[in-house]
Design brief:
It contains 18 helices and 22 strands. It has 496 residues and is of the alpha/beta class. Strand 19, helix 16 (427-442) and strand 20 (446-450) form a beta-alpha-beta unit. The chain has helices spanning 37-44, 67-72, 92-96, 98-104, 113-127, 142-155, 172-187, 199-205, 228-236, 290-297, 320-326, 335-339, 346-351, 367-381, 397-409, 427-442, 454-460, 483-490; strands spanning 2-8, 11-17, 26-31, 52-57, 60-62, 75-78, 160-164, 191-195, 208-213, 216-222, 254-263, 267-275, 279-283, 304-310, 313-314, 328-331, 359-360, 364-365, 415-419, 446-450, 463-468, 471-477. 35% of the residues lie in helices and 24% in strands. The protein folds into two domains: 2-236, Rossmann fold; 254-490, Rossmann fold, CATH 3.40.50.300.
Length: 496
Amino acid sequence: MKEISIAFPGVKALTDVNFHTYAGKVHALIGANGAGKSTLMKVLAGAYNHYTGGIWIDGQEVHIRTPKDAKDCGIQIVYQEVDTALIPYLSVAENIMLEKTVHGMKGKQLVNWAALHKEARAVLDRMGVGVSTRKLVQELTLAEKQMVLIARSVSLKCKFLILDEPTAPLSHSETEQLFRLVRLLKSEGVGIIFISHRLPELYEICDDITIMRDGRFVIREELARLDQHAVVEHMLGSRMDGQFPERRESQGEVMFEAIGIQDKDKVKGVDLHIRKGEIVGLGGLVGAGKTELCRALFGASSTSTGTIRLHGRTLRQASPYQAVKNGLALVPEERRREGIFVEESVSTNLTVAGLKDFTRTGSWLSAAKEKAAAAGIIGSLGIKTPNQRARVRNLSGGNQQKIAIGKWLLVDADVYIFDEPTKGVDVGAKRDIYELAAELASRGKCILYASSEISEMLGLTDRIYVMYDGKVLKELQTADTTEEEILLYSTGGLLT
């Protein structure tokens, strides 16, 4: 890709970017949120057609202006936003074989369903994924949806496979499955372009690396020639010291309690408490029940039961609306589907949770108040946006996440529930989120911080509840535990 440039209303996303890679190589493409890496790959995948510059494959210039153009050139992409690329009411097999069914019928009117399921099963077996081909996609976990998307790409003969944050929703074992598949494709001569913010996994799977910053090319190098500190410096343009904020212990009395929380077979009688000014970690692997527990505490599950108390008062939590009125806030795992309105403006998203504070004379919205409040959050969280009117869908994943968090700061809740808040964001944005959680705790708020990243548990929290199979298997004091102990309980192990 030579001198690729592209602009959107108010945003110059890419400026004269050069990128090259080889068949049979795994190439890391990284940068801070908003660096332009996903935009560059969307150009390559035919999602954007108004770019300037050129693309060459095997020395021949190709003209990629549509997704079909890219696929005809052997380029497949697995996007980070899995729900936008899958059809929820179709089966796993139908989603995997979708393009072959649509483009391969050639006048036929009948589908050979047995053959379709058999071929889809063969792809999943090759990947080591045990999900049923007849299951509806809407019934899958986030991790299973990601694997179905990858399976669709694998089912098509491709020269280059672009993976945009593929491991973000995956557990350790699922990530190992993916890496085995990547190594298999690499051995077959497929080029893999791997976008990820998880630096350790880049060193495990990638051969080369290209780093971008602010829509421009920074450096291309063999990954073995750069250590992690050098990679971070190139990403941010400066050194980053102290990933986790220093905190002083200032915890008070128990402020929030959850007793006997149950939700079908996903959450099984969980008890927990949080003191005033405390950050409590909710650890465990993908599928342990962390997200389901967070949703139950926030009134987002109609089937959950149990008792929730705040300041000693039992709460009625039949809906998220009531939870917000009671002083709770939730930053959900799937931010694009549940945490933000992607088609609305930045200012609308930041003020939507507390609209009553921005109205006058009954129900009239005060644009001046809304603008001032949004400007304050944009400045304090360092949200990169051309203006308040910009649509959230055009911002990077990290800035979308800051908006998903920022809207709750105007509500001034007592309890903040973070569900995988740093998934898919860069090291700089992660640090901002850590500092925000610490700052909220210093103001006497209760923080429940759910994450499958053990380093976050150890670096940020005061105590940790480790979940396994819907239950809290162990409560740990962060200062007295280790990564090995947390991982032991996360996998169902019991110390004697």
